[in-house]
Amino acid sequence: MLGHTCNSWHTGHMAVARVLSSCAAVIAVAGATVVAVDMGRAANGPDAQATPYSLPSLTASAPMVSWPPRRGASANSTAPASHPGPTTRSVAPQAPKATRRAAPQPAAGPRTTRRVAPARSSPPAAPKPAPQPGQRLPVAGSTTAATRVITVSAAASWSTTATLQAWVRAPDWGWLKYGSAILAHVGADGVSTAPSESRSATPVGSFTLTQAFGAYPDPGTSLPYFRTDSADWWISQSGPLYNTHQHCGSGCGFTLGEPNEHLSVILPYYRYSVVIDYNTRNAPGGVRPGGGSAFFLHVTDGRATAGCVAIPQANLVAIMKWLTPSAHPRILIGVS
């Protein structure tokens, strides 16, 4: 079998060296097999019972032949006599993966506590005063639509002095005082419900305040105001001009003198004045001839009047600034 294999190899296409190398490899395999069989017998001895023995696999025991030969190797070089079987790739043990260390942080110093300024507490708001209850006026009289009034209250009908007080209407009911009480001077004959041209009495009742005037410039009142000069007169003589203001220098239809009042020269009384609408065209019944004329709220000289109401000039100016037509102001005169 072996000789046939070696002799039948076709040598026409192969190099001689290849044929010889192949044959040598086959012979070596066969020889190794025979030797292995003989050694098995010798080990068991002549009397030992022969045990079946299978030839080792050619792949496992035959020498590995590198074919074709590596460059630089001889045609007769052979592989090692034995093959260790499948090669296990040995992997070098890996060093444990280095633990990634974070860069050292600088040691933190003591933590600074940020001081927050305490919130500035505002002083508690002062409690709002409770609204004052309204009061009843000390003098009887109609107030109608008025929201600001002045009362002149005398202790008795013959009194020549009285207490003057300003008032504002309360939100719910009654009246609230405005400012302080003022000493006022009234007529030398006191106060009366029936004044006349023959008596120096101040009229009792409720009257509107719609006009102001004076020898001095307007102090800042909201009432209509005129500044007097030599042509301004207040008429007290009988006739169609009774108890009216007239501005005329000559040929006026009235006497330029008594009983009419030359307004610009009656000082200090008429420096500032407010007309009291008693028996005027603004009164409910209009003008009554002989019923009394020229009643004003004016500056005092500290004495009783001919029928007007007189107070200190500074107080009068303050009241004139406070009066306003929108408040429908009135003056109430009487006995308290």
List keywords for this structure.
single chain, 336 residues, alpha/beta, five-stranded mixed β-sheet, 4 helices, 15 strands, elongated, disordered N terminus
Task: Please characterize this protein's 3D structure.
With 336 residues, the chain is of the alpha/beta class. The strands form four sheets. Strands 3-2-1-15-6 form a five-stranded mixed sheet, with no helix packed on it. A five-stranded mixed sheet has the order 8-7-12-13-14. Strands 10-9-11 form a three-stranded antiparallel sheet, with no helix packed on it. The longest helix has 29 residues.
In short:
24% of the residues are buried. The protein is 15% helix and 19% strand. By secondary structure, it is an alpha/beta fold.
Order of helices and strands: HHHEEEEEEEEEEEEEEHE
General shape: elongated
**How far apart, in Å, are the first and last alpha carbons?**
168 Å
Q: Strand pairing plus helix content: what structural class?
A: alpha/beta
What strand line-up does the widest sheet have? Answer: 3-2-1-15-6
Number of strands: 15
Rg: 71 Å
Poorly predicted regions: 1-88
Please work out how many helical segments DSSP would assign: 4
Please, what is the average pLDDT? 77
**Secondary structure: helix percent:** 10-25%
Which percent range describes the beta-strand content?
A: 15-25%
**Could you describe the largest sheet, including whether it forms a barrel?**
5 strands, mixed
